[in-house]
Amino acid sequence: MMRRGVSVIVSSCGIDLSPSLMRAVGSEVSADGQRITVFLSRQQSARLLQDVARSGRVAVVFSEPHSHRSVQVKSDRARVREATADDASGLQRYLQAMQGELARVGFGADFAAAMLAHRIEDVSAIEFTPGQAYDQTPGPKAGQRLGGA
Amino acid sequence: MNSCISLDDVRPCLEGVVPSMIATVAADGTPNVAYLSQVFYVDAQHVAVSFQFFNKTRQNILAHPRATVLLLHPVTAQFYRLHLRYLRTETGGPVFERMKALLAGIASHAGMADVFVLQGSDIYEVLEVEPVPGAAQPALPGRCGMLGALRRTSSRLAQAVSLDSALDTLLRCLQEDLGIGHAMVLILDPNTQRLYTVASCGYATSGVGSEIALGDGVIGVAARERVPVRIMHMASAYLYGHAVRLGMADRGLVPVDATEIPYPGLAAPHSQLAVPLISCGRTLGVLFVESPEDLRFGFEDEDLLVMLGGQLAAAIDLMREEPESPVPGEGQTVQPGALSSTGPRLRVRHYEANNSIFLNDDYLIKGVAGAILWKLLREHQRSGRCDYSNRELRLDPDLGLPDVSDNLEARLLLLARRLQEQGRGLSIEKSGRGRFRLCVAARLELVSTPD
Fold it and tell me: Which of B31, B66, B72 minimises the CB distance to A57?
């Protein structure tokens, strides 16, 4: 699921324990699921990127808009790097997948494009290996740890 | 709080069209993200979030009260961050009841009615509303003419000189100017703690006289909690018809009471909004609108109807206190030929136990309105008298009107409208300020039964 067009929400924590939060403009998951990269627009996420760079802590929720099926992954060893031209095509594929997903819940392609708008030279990437994973689908089981992650 | 942008500026994001996200932090600094079906607007400085399960978010805010919420504008795709401080959890009261009604709607829409049970409303103080830079799309022009429609309706309402015309004016304006096709006004009977319908529009039957208990359905909750209740996707739990069926099941499926007038509302509403009518701090009744469409009533409709509801409530209050117009020979007017009325024979049966009245075996009315009609008919048969003042009824100890705050005007209107629909030659009409006349075009046979 995490490799399709799904919503990606990223959070970290400031030195004063205040949460930082933003929607990613794209994501990539390695074939074995051990390497996750989420992309953020710097102008939208200055605090968040600063917090990740400082603490290494990150929590990311992947969620399928039409079903609300969600999974949360966490790490305390995340690293921040600048995006490169090589990342651009992946972000474009992500946008197209999200446009398809959001159309299923009634939002037009322009809305998805505005929601995920970015300039590649203003994008940073957060890379991490998930330490823990949790089922986050709304309901009584939300927050249960997924086995084997 | 940031002075540039307020919570009111982001209200379109708080309508539950797009889910929001909440981030919190555990005591050890581990962040957590969770989806919220809706962030609930409480007032310009506070929002509420539903507490349904004891999850990580809840553990975190109890340990450390800071939270950040990401909102997305459903039209412009502009992001906002709300920086929040958790204050308390409410498990009853107006905010809780509004959220419960709303959440039941969301849950039924999402097919999760059994999963979502509201345990509490977590109240947060809004520390800052932070607009996130981005490539927002142009906003839709504001819904044009809401303020103009409010002004026109308000002006027309201000011209009404009786409760009757005030209610008709308001319902007509809702239909013609605001495109709201289904509406009702209900008045609270402080004695029985029930709301009775005095006016409606858009239904197959008027339902005038039908009753709803305080706390039942969207209407009953709005009256009990004295807050507007707005639902954008309808849940069966809040359908009055559903509540009635449940009630019947509780009573062992007894047949419907012969004195029950059917509730007129839509069988399958998708949006509903109930606004309490409050004047001088007292709840007088409820203005209720509904629609077969989802998402029909937004926060602007709610704002508008709350204002109109306030004006209507003040008008109802004023009309109750209106002085009588002088009439020469008060109390002496006799309908010509009253004692030897012609017309079809009409048997009027009165049951003392609940003051219910049946016309040729068909139920008409009960309670205080029934007692009033019975008094008028007996007086008419005795002396032929037709003209009365509201004041003398109010002072009549036999009628047992609750107290001076009772809305006699509304009871008389209910009676007049029931007679209009079912009267068989009986009617009452307003004959001046604070006065009315009984008209009889039938040969009456009055029968009283102790119970």
Answer: B31
Domain ranges of chain B: 7-131, 146-320, 338-449
CB B195 within 8 A of CB B258: no
CA A52/CA B272 separation, integer angstroms:
45
| Statement: residue A42 has pLDDT above 80 | yes
Q: Contact B262/B324 with Cβ under 8 angstroms?
A: no
Picking from B33, B34, B132, the nearest residue to A44 by CB comes out as: B132
What are chain A's domains?
7-135 (2.30.110.10)
Query: Tell me: the pLDDT tens digits for A92-126?
Result: 999 999 999 888 888 889 999 999 999 999 999 99
A108 CB within 8 Å of a chain B CB: no
ipTM of the complex: 0.93
**Cα(A40)–Cα(A19) distance, rounded to whole angstroms?**
16
| A–B interface: beta-carbon pairs under 8 A | 113
Looking at this protein, which amino acid is placed at residue A77? R
Measured CA to CA, the distance from residue A127 to residue B373 in angstroms comes to: 80
| CATH architecture assignment, domain B338-449 | Orthogonal Bundle (1.10)
Residues B7-131, CATH architecture: Roll (2.30)
The CA distance from B134 to A46, in Å, is 13
β-sheet with B229-231: strand ranges across: B211-213, B194-201, B182-189, B282-291, B271-279, B229-231
Which residues 60-79 of chain A have a CB within 8 Å of chain B? 60-61, 63, 68, 70, 72, 74, 76
What is the model's pTM? Answer: 0.78
| CATH architecture of structural domain B146-320 | 2-Layer Sandwich (3.30)
How far apart CA B128 and CA B210 sit, in angstroms, is 47
